């Protein structure tokens, strides 16, 4: 493998606080140095990538909430098509939800997913283990054995654990393995049958609503259970002001709780479902503008620990249905960086904080060593131009699934190249 | 517009080739439709409708939900204008209703249908169909979204009695949450200048309905006082089994329309109901059959309004 020298780029590594123009050398698939003196020439036979003073080089992004169709729903997305979409978005590590068919509730399947990721040569897959057998919400899955097999954390994916007693037991048991539980924060009985956030728009459209408070109600319960049990808890795709307030206060009280959100919840509000636009049907549903602003505030003040794509591939036939029966979910891999950068361009986040939310911080939540530019670490890298404009077009996205809620959105910031373990896996000269 | 959107939203009028809803329809588009319907009401009574108007045009009544009344009304409207009318009832028990819907659309396209009247249990289904067919689509009721021809026929009935909408107060009573009739009427009557009240138990009145420009009342005594029109909604029996309302008899006791409650309205207030009625549940028989009831006239105006809609769409004229 040829050495690669990145020149004239802004190096950002939130894990070490690095943010300055510089040169980064990759040798033997690992990061060999980040502080090469300008006078020193490129090593013998090295490929030189010149950032022209405009490009940003950061760790390959770590996306902690991704659904892929494999196994069971390959018509929506395969590991390989998801991997292609990921690297096009600068992502080199994805944590994959277990609600596949079969569900990832036994150790062999967790190992299989890790191996399938490696086979692509593009990305690392960190599998979530099912929290309950079959993600059915009742009986415990084999948390210990799954953790041994490489399950990074435990969740039932898009289903919240409805029963308080079960949730208490899960938190208590998982604590014995130091395992993290990731909860979908939505009270299932309040959410049942709903497909849009309760309010004026849902009333006008005649769509069954879910009260925004369904999120806070579940978060309040689970925070209390986490306090009771000492279990480690993370909330996925938090999307309401009230839910974030509860988490903010719990953190201030010293509780070990974390949360992420997804780009639709800080970039879009519920009005995009107008005229029954099913590509904008998500779970949890898009919220009112006040909640969107609260998510932006949660990003800025650090309450939110990570931005995850919440990538959920759907086939066109899953979406080409009346709104209430259409599948929920949107793709998000290749728009993750650019929609996050919109927060930087809008002045809500500085570049370093934005990159931290996409690399080091989700990796820390999951206890993964990915997401840094540390010398000796695998050279998983994302090189991007923060100012390149482009327009999201469903139908033209990399990967198989095209159900983006951002169709037609003009964005600034585009990935120029992605490297996995020192090998270029996306960009002009992808090997 | 397709499932991806493309910038259009709910606050923008739908294309003029279809009638998908009343929301966003301007009075300047509503009034000519009512005028034309008034004209057809007179022709219907004299049995001299222009049977050559839609000659050679095909109208398909595509009903994914059972409805004898609305389907018959559209069928008569089409036939009185000379269209070839075909009724299609599609079983709605299939899980993949959407697939059926789009497959049906492809079939209908191949048949060169001109006018497609659609009823479906899912909100937005006619809008989805409208994207995929060449025919003009008339929404004959979709889920809990809209039922535009019902609102037009209700408006015509009201206008025939009062001559105007200005200054009128209309109470819409019952299961507002699950009512497409209520939504379409709210949009239309507020657009025409009426004061609209909604009346019902809090479990059957969405909290956000006030944003549509109506006042909310939770007792009939409060809601009916001084109104010009009492519009009752049908309450589904399955909603009165303890989930939204404890029982039918409790519902009638507190939210049924009887003569005592009707006396709170103005002396000659109209009583309306979109049908079919649950006598003894939402409305007392004596009220339903009283001089103040215009329920049968609503049915008559229904045919006239649907003729006006079909005529307007077939001519490619202005509509919502």
From TrEMBL, chain A:
Cellular-component GO terms for this entry: cytoplasm
Keyword set, alphabetical order: Pyrimidine biosynthesis, Zinc
One MF annotation (Gene Ontology) recorded for this entry: metal ion binding
Name assigned to this protein: Dihydroorotase
Residue intervals of the Amidohydrolase domain: 348-426
Keyword Phosphoprotein: no
GO biological process, one term: pyrimidine nucleotide biosynthetic process
Domain called Dihydroorotase catalytic: residue spans: 56-242
Gene3D superfamilies from the UniProt entry: Metal-dependent hydrolases, Urease, subunit C, domain 1
Taxonomic superkingdom: Bacteria
From TrEMBL, chain B:
Positions in coiled-coil regions: none
Molecular function GO labels: amino acid binding; aspartate carbamoyltransferase activity
Stored InterPro entries: Asp/Orn_carbamoyltranf_P-bd, Asp/Orn_carbamoylTrfase, Asp/Orn_carbamoylTrfase_sf, Asp_carbamoyltransf, Asp_carbamoyltransf_Asp/Orn-bd
EC number: 2.1.3.2
Pathway membership: Pyrimidine metabolism; UMP biosynthesis via de novo pathway; (S)-dihydroorotate from bicarbonate: step 2/3
Keywords: Pyrimidine biosynthesis, Transferase
Record: residues binding carbamoyl phosphate: 69-70, 119, 147, 150, 275-276
Catalytic activity: carbamoyl phosphate + L-aspartate = N-carbamoyl-L-aspartate + phosphate + H(+)
Pfam family, one: OTCace
Enzyme class, broadest EC rank: transferase
Protein residues bound to L-aspartate: 97, 180, 234
Gene Ontology terms: cellular component: cytosol
BP-aspect Gene Ontology terms: 'de novo' pyrimidine nucleobase biosynthetic process; 'de novo' UMP biosynthetic process; amino acid metabolic process
UniProt cross-references to PROSITE patterns, sorted A to Z: CARBAMOYLTRANSFERASE (PS00097)
NCBIfam families xref list: asp_carb_tr, PRK00856.1
Subunit description: Heterododecamer (2C3:3R2) of six catalytic PyrB chains organized as two trimers (C3), and six regulatory PyrI chains organized as three dimers (R2).
Annotated function: Catalyzes the condensation of carbamoyl phosphate and aspartate to form carbamoyl aspartate and inorganic phosphate, the committed step in the de novo pyrimidine nucleotide biosynthesis pathway. Reversibly catalyzes the transfer of the carbamoyl group from carbamoyl phosphate (CP) to the N(epsilon) atom of ornithine (ORN) to produce L-citrulline.
Family: Belongs to the aspartate/ornithine carbamoyltransferase superfamily. ATCase family.
Name recorded for this polypeptide: Aspartate carbamoyltransferase
Source species: Komagataeibacter rhaeticus
